[in-house]
Amino acid sequence: MFPSPVSSLLVLALLQGAPAPRAPSTACEDLKRIELAPTPVTSDLEVCVSKGLITNFVFDVSAEVELQDEVRFVEVTRGRSTFHFIPPRDMVPGERLRLTARLWLGEAQALVTFTLVAHSGQATHQVEVYRDQRSRDSYQQEVAQERAKVQRLREQLEQLRNRLALSGELRELIASEAISSHGIQGQVLRGLSGWPGGILLVRTGNSYRTDNSVAVELWLTNSSPDPWLLTQASLVDATGNELKGMSLWQEGPLAPAASDNIIVQMRASRDSLPGEWTLVLRDEAGRVVRIAGVRFPDNPPPVTDVGGGPR
Predict the structure, then answer these.
(1) Is residue 94 within 8 Å of 117, Cβ to Cβ?
(2) What is the pLDDT at residue 117?
(3) Which CATH number fits the domain that encloses residue 228?
(4) Would you write out the chain's pLDDT as a tens digit for each of its 311 residues?
(5) Residue 214, domain extent
(6) What does the alpha-carbon distance between residue 172 and residue 162 come to, in Å, rounded to a whole number?
(7) Number of domains within the chain
(8) How far apart, in Å, are the Cα atoms of 176 and each of 15, 117, 180, 271, 289?
(9) Which residues, listed in sequence order, are joined to residue 84 by a DSSP beta bridge?
């Protein structure tokens, strides 16, 4: 059985090995504004902090601030209506510390509590706290900042769309250094064996190699009474060493008695992963299938220089 044009394109897209864009975090705001007058605070307010990054608190009235474990902090600076700090060097992601601010307006006072939550490399740069209604200028500044943020997101979305449109094309494979003059090597996997445990029937398979990736494509039949959905894959060598971190592709859950293909891919250099491997597949129910006899194509012979640059 030969791969369909659609599955071949998917193999090409996986083999190019381009890193997936990282989704921007929405948990930490660079600038956080808090109004106490219109919405009285009834619970702790979380603020992102990170070791090595400064966080500034700015109040619109005089404020007295108390900081839990202040002695651990790298730097703490107090002003009449400001408070700046750099978190402890030993603060680990997920750790929480309390910051309490007592705000004064004449004889009246208000108490507000913040929870400083440690993140890795992410922090709120400035926290603005308003005891009374914010000024018109403050609102206008926020609107301008939000418009700039929306514009950046639009530009990022357009970049992602352009990248997706190129995904899998030959020029993208070359630009990402997935292939060179050696091209893509592929071979039919013969003599696959294993312990399917009544879960899967392996019909046939292919393996592939590029300059920076390997991939395995399998055609499977679900011989169990329950749907099967791949959630994890790894490679195990003859000594039992397991290589994890494989990328997965499956169109959807494989229904009982149905047949379809899956693709698993891993970053690997041209001269890596020699010999025979066992492919370990795990589904969402925790069921494990081991398929032995997986080999990847050998390195191709050197290509005669035809005048191009070194590849």
Answers:
(1) yes
(2) 94
(3) 2.60.40.770
(4) 444 444 554 555 555 544 443 333 446 888 888 887 655 555 568 999 999 899 999 998 889 999 999 999 999 999 999 999 999 999 999 999 999 999 877 666 788 899 999 998 889 999 998 876 555 565 566 666 667 667 777 777 777 766 666 555 555 665 666 666 677 788 888 877 655 567 888 888 999 988 888 899 999 998 888 899 999 999 998 888 888 888 888 888 899 899 999 999 988 888 888 888 999 999 888 888 888 889 888 876 655 555 555 55
(5) 182-294
(6) 11
(7) 2
(8) 10, 38, 10, 19, 33
(9) 56, 77
Torsion angle, alpha carbons of 150, 153, 157, 163, to 10 = 150
* Spatial separation of the C-alpha atoms in residues 196 and 156, rounded to whole Å: 44
Output the six-digit token pair for 120.
């890795």
**Residue that has been written with the tokens 């808090």 in this structure:** 34
Does 17 reside within a domain?
A: no
What local confidence, expressed as pLDDT, does residue 42 receive? 52
Residue 69 lies in a domain: yes
Which of 134, 168, 203 lies at the terminal end of a domain, its last residue?
134
Report how far residue 200's alpha carbon sits from residue 185's, in angstroms, rounded to the nearest whole number: 27
Kindly state the tokens that stand for 148.
Answer: 């700039």
**48 and 122 housed in the same domain:** yes
Structure tokens at 14: 């996986």
The answer to whether residue 157 is domain-embedded is no
Read off the CATH number of the domain in which 83 is found.
2.60.40.10
pLDDT value for 211: 81
